[in-house]
Amino acid sequence: MVPEALAVPYAAEIGAGDEAVGFLMAGDVIGMTVGAVAIAKTGALWRRRLLVPLAAATGLPLMATALTPNVPVTVALWAAAGCLGTYMVIAQIAFTQLVPDRMRARAIAFASAGLQTAQGLGVMFGGLLAEAVPPSTAIAVSAAVGSVGALVVGIGHRLGQVDPDSRGREPAEPEPARS
Questions:
Q1: Dihedral sign for Cα atoms in the order 6, 57, 30, 36
Q2: Which terminus, N or C, of the chain has the lesser number of Cβ atoms within 10 Å?
Q3: Using CA atoms, how far apart are residues 59 and 115, in angstroms rounded to an integer?
Q4: Cα torsion for 49, 54, 56, 62, to the nearest 10°?
């Protein structure tokens, strides 16, 4: 969301005209479309395995925006980020499958409100940051924060999972304390 919100000042920063803004903003949408088609052809097991890596990697192409590349390179970078951003599709599928049918509508509405709030806050903080640093830097920093956040959530989730091989076994006896 931050790159699109800062597309106009970023275009000005790299010396591109107003017509470049539409191309910049289209990059993410094109990438997301390509990624969604690819994800739709991926099996459920692989989708689950790809969720965290895709989420963490989404910010990587956007970090390169700090180098202020020209418009075609930036569009390609933003398209790559959009393609990687299809983790959102995977997350939505996983969330929907976890929620009981009788609660699904309320849960999806609540999750949607939370996502919109998070995106709005991201745009706000990205804009505030762009007041202090160049837009290219604000985009790169926002991307880095998003990637690190995805890694933290992914690692936290993984640490909280039960080892499937340990199900049904008795817990190991604790070792006696040594005197």
A1: negative
A2: C
A3: 17
A4: 170
Q: Residue 176 — very low, low, confident or very high, per pLDDT cuts 50/70/90?
A: low
pLDDT confidence of residue 43: 87
- What is the average per-residue pLDDT within 152-178? 63
pLDDT tens-digit series, residues 62-114: 999 999 889 999 999 999 999 999 998 888 888 888 888 899 899 889 888 98
Q: Round to whole Å and give the CA distance between 100 and 70.
A: 48
Phi then psi for 6, rounded to 5 degrees?
-105, 15
Q: Alpha helices of 65-103 — where are they, by DSSP H?
A: 71-84, 87-98
Dist CA 142 CA 28 (whole Å): 16
CA dihedral 115, 117, 121, 127 (to 10 degrees): 90
Q: Dihedral (C-alpha) 40, 46, 51, 52: value to the nearest 10 degrees? A: -160
What is the separation of C-alpha 28 from the centre of its chain, rounded to a whole number of angstroms? 12
Q: What are the counts of helices (DSSP H) followed by strands (DSSP E) for the chain?
A: 9, 0
